[in-house]
Amino acid sequence: MKQLIQLCWSQEQRERPAADRVAFILTRLSDKNLQTQVVADRKLTEDAYARVALDQKQAQEAEAGRVAQEKKQAQEAEAWVALEQKEAQEAEAVRAALEQKQAQEAEAVRAALEKKQAREADAMSALEKQQAQEAARSFCTACGAKLSGGKVCASCGEKI
Ligand SMILES: [Zn+2]
């Protein structure tokens, strides 16, 4: 374009281009400029599409990140609940085992005590029986008089 202007202002008559030649060159330059503009417009449009696509991608990534975070938090909360349940079950098992052990010990003590009392009652009964036998040998069963060791009662004559 600058070269064309210089040629048009040239001192030499024969160097100045004819009007149709100037028109041809200007037309060509205009077409080229138009093509450049179209390419620039297309690039702007493509950039705008690319920006929209990038915005959408970033929004999708942010949403995916948010969903993943929520899922992780929910899983952590579930894990906490499960842990608390497990601890409660373990505490309950320990309590039940302790109660059972205490009940068994109490039962063992009660049974041992009963056995001991039964043995003592037997011993007492045997002692009473022995005392009764000794009394029967010492006194006459018929008249109640004290015996002196003979085969018959000295008081009533009853056989011993
Ligand atoms: Zn007698």
Description of the structure:
The chain has 160 residues and is an all-alpha fold. The chain has one domain. Helix content is 79%, strand content 0%. The model has no long low-confidence stretch (mean pLDDT 93). Bound molecules: zinc ion (ZN).
Most strands sheet: none
Unique ligands: zinc ion
Our measurement of the CA-to-CA distance between the termini, rounded to an integer number of angstroms, reads: 169 Å
List the domain count as a whole number.
1
Radius of gyration: 64 Å
Assembly form of the protein: single chain
Query: Kindly state the mean pLDDT as a whole number?
Result: 93
Number of strands: 0
How many helices in DSSP terms?
A: 2
Percent of residues in beta strands: under 5%
**Looking at the structure, what is the overall shape?**
rod-shaped
Give the low-confidence spans.
none
| Helical percentage | over 70%
Judged by helices, strands and strand pairing, the structural class is: mainly alpha
| H-E string | HH
Describe what is shown at a glance.
The protein has two helices and no strands. Helices cover 79% and strands 0% of the residues. It has one domain (2-138).
Key structural traits:
binds zinc ion, mainly alpha
Produce the secondary structure layout.
Blueprint (H helix, E strand, L loop, with lengths): L1 H7 L10 H120 L22
Zinc ion (ZN) binds next to loops.
